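G., the chain you wanted modeled:
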Amino acid sequence: MVELEKEKKNITETDVESALIKAEELRKQKHYQEAINLLVDVLQAGLLKPRIYYRLGNIYYDMGDLDRAEYAYKRVIEFSPEHINAHYNLSVVYKKKGMVEESVKYLRKAYLLELKYPKKSQLTNEQKLWARVIALKQFILIVSIIIAVSFVLRYLSFILGRR
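Predicted structure as tokens:
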């Protein structure tokens, strides 16, 4: 146990960076379990946790393990609430799981974060467009509901006023 603790302390951010790069290469080669094992090992060092969890989320997503991808992206957000891509990727996971309301919630959050922190965004133009379309649809829906309620209230006041 003491030896393991000593090894953990010797892992530097540079080691973690190297592991992240290697894990990404393994992911591209579809050697998912190898990449996961590598990242879980460096995760125990306690350094760069949001980046490690984000990479794990991407690997789990590629494997089709949506539950673990969801967990990993939630951990990223827990450590780094302004992580735009984690919010976006979590929205994609929820969409794949058929959880539309949650998907829209995280997509909207990604879009709002991108507006607030434009330099932190690494979303592609297609992802940004999709987020804007969803936000616009929500806005149109809310305005439509307000207009409909307004007409109903006017109609009721007209009907009640005639009595």
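The chain has one domain: 2-161.

Shout if anything looks off.
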